[in-house]
Amino acid sequence: xxxxxxxxxxxxxxxxxxxxxxxxxxxxxxxxxxxxxxxxxxxxxxxxxxxxxxxxxxxxxxxxxxxxxxxxxxxxxxxxxxxxxxxxxxxxxxxxxxxxxxxxxxxxxxxxxxxxxxxxxxxxxxxxxxxxxxxxxxxxxxxxxxxxxxxxxxxxxxxxxxxxxxxxxxxxxxxxxxxxxxxxxxxxxxxxxxxxxxxxxxxxxxxxxxxxxx
Length: 214
What we know:
17% strand
């Protein structure tokens, strides 16, 4: 049975000043290493065919998407529906600062990430409500093809958890490293199958293999 293949790729490492801070939908730059990683990734994926390349419209995803699309002569199709989850009032703050200002809020989010909106931003369910219709459009346009989507960790986590039926709290254990690929095939009968999860095309960054603060 024919399938459409979706390769989801997380953006590269962001500027080190943002480490241990929540940024969500803020538009922040890649680090020099983040860009270099995608230059290496473009070489590693040189023999992989793509019919189209889509990206979040945030810089940290767009830069990598353009590096991957250029050797194939493809134009990156940016769409805000692929943006990272909106963290609302938490955006730009450290995890310690969040706990100071909203004691217990982070744990409340971890107990119910699908429904939590206490920060004034999106829940995981809200995120899926904008991402899934976009993916349906991509599937309709590229039926039977191979599509690359450069986006964000929480986007990939939410979609993968939905396909695998993993409940919200447990989904926080799904890791997506910088530059890692998650591949999902969508078959003609509507079945979605995860073929690869966080595939390490390149060695993960030393500090990026695990996080307790998704």
